[in-house]
Write a structure and sequence with these properties.
Length: about 425
Amino acid sequence: MEPILLEPAAKGLYGELKVPGDKSISHRAVMFGAISSGITTAKNFLPGEDCLNTVSCFRKLGVDIETSGTEVRINGKGLDGLKEFEGLLDVGNSGTTIRLMMGLLSGRPFTSHITGDESIAKRPMNRVTSPLLEMGAKIEGRENGKYAPITISGGRLNALTYSMPVASAQVKSAVLLAGLQAEGETVIKELAPTRDHTERMIRLFGGNVTTSGKNISIKGGQQLKAADIEVPGDISSAAFFLAAGSIVPGSEILLRNVGLNWTRSGIFDVMEKMGANLSIDRKEESFEPVGDIRINYSKLKGTTIEGGLIPRLIDELPIIALLGTQAEGETIIRDAAELRVKETDRIETVAAELRKLGAQIETTDDGMVITGGTNLHGGTVSSHGDHRIGMMLAIASLICKKEVTLEDPASIAISYPNFFTHLAKLR
Ligand code: S3P
């Protein structure tokens, strides 16, 4: 796709939006629908490229899945309904798809080959391979199973007590999906709480998983039953408009039906600490909490983001870095080395691209130090194929003095296909 020219905002952003369905929950709706018995329907499903790749992989594994816009109907036949696919299961750019499928397919009695794009080939898979090998799985990949393409010769698994060396919901979920098929009880010990969508979904599908402090336990041999799901709006997509509303003077935006799961809502804690004018207008409890969020422009101040807060806002750190450039004083991000193994090295990419617009950011091993109160001047930047970097730069363009040319904007469709239409609606 051609580069796109983005004009600065002439006035405040105003209006309301319903951001698309949550990416993490949409993936899981397809996966759990596929391994349950009966018909699962998911409404407000995210038809972004990552989730469509999950659909295509499960179709290849023999599952009948119909999609129509934001509705998906999955005709699951239980775990045994999954059948061997001799070709390649291609996850595209999706880390969630490959890692969760690795856990799932380790317990299936057939061989699977999983691959993805250039970015996936560089992302560490050993964090998943390692506990799965301990459970008895047979997995091969480049550099001793560290990188995709991955081949799994599935079969019987033993339960495992596993202390996770990284705070990662993808690793936790892969081990839970393997644990669901293993003999005995699998216990996972988390370093810090990470998103708990897998646990919630197992319960919604009639399974049993217990959480006690940082320990999560699951017994093998459970059969799941189909469920109907209304996917909440993605808080990680909403975050771009929360940021836009708080840095473009005169803005007022209402975001409807956004997922408010505590394991994902660290962005609220940070924005409140920075002095943002943000309020939750309505909150409802379903299998995931959802509500409406209102944001108005206000002056921001710098803050420090670290420790257990990091996993609760890991995908929001690129847009938080932009907020930092506009706040008064310094914003420090630390304990976020995980950013280096996302779709791109998000520490270096965020800093390099924002510097091209005039930001002052120093990178550290595990984060960034952002100088506040800088004027952004415009220029040419690139998403580097990373959807969240692309959206962050598009929001940055609103407060630049001159136009921004964004290269590789197509990556935004990975998680937010109608992002530019929504942005135009608020202008
Ligand atoms: C995700 C977990 C997070 C997040 C990713 C989606 C998930 O990754 O960054 O966008 O759906 O489980 P990690 O678990 O690797 O931190």
